[in-house]
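Blinded run. Sample ID left blank on purpose so nobody reads anything into the name before looking at the predicted structure. Input follows.
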Amino acid sequence: MKQISTEKDLSTALASSIKSKKTIGFVPTMGALHRGHISLIETCKKQCDTTIVSIFVNPTQFNDKKDFERYPRTIDNDLALLKKAGVDFVFLPNEKLIYPKPDKRKFNFGKLDQLLEGKHRPGHFNGVAQVVSRLLEMIKPDKLFLGQKDFQQVMVIRELIKQLKSPVKVVVCPTVRDDENLAMSSRNANLSDEEYDEATFIPIWLEEVKKLATRYKVSQIKARIETLIARREIMKLDYFEICDTETLEPIKEFSETDQAVALIAVFVGKTRLIDNVLM
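Blinded prediction complete.
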């Protein structure tokens, strides 16, 4: 595994793959790696000749400076995991390389980035678009590997790629869960033992939502989830919505033809967790 931190070294490293027309697979991360990231890498290695992983905690996608500062950084452990996973290259850019000058670009994703995460974290998806567009510009991968846990982010990145007219193919991989069925997340490292125990209710509730959907109205299910979370002393609901999978517009009633996804964001203590389930 080769570590790269400059654009020149990046071009040199990928030159042989490009020249020999080997497929390049890219897994973007913000570090604090876990089994979910490793699953993306494993899928990437199966589908591509060359695997490159980036680690960069992107400041422009944090609308809360304290959240940016709290984000876990475990670079030594990350590098050990990547080496064990058989990654070809790890790209470790600094902020000056990604943003040689302040990035003032404003992307227009319509309603897609104004709902859910977009509504509750203003500017978040614009920051995501800024960093992803820069990384794609530098790496020029054939395939980009993303996790389903970040459902809305995947939709935003698909739209970004469409707007950029980039040929990269997006590969969405299933959410990886731990032994208690909690969605793997770098933020889980910030949970105390008590908070972790509370967080394990999230996937239980989402599974209940799937069952309730066959018998109850959307409004009744939403009321049920809101009540359950209100009873937990160290939990605070940021949002819970059942949305159309194509538009992310909240749905009012279930239909036999529409596909729906339930999405949730919950503060457990000071840690904000997200999850989703396809209905």
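Unblinding after everyone has recorded impressions. The radius of gyration is 19 Å.
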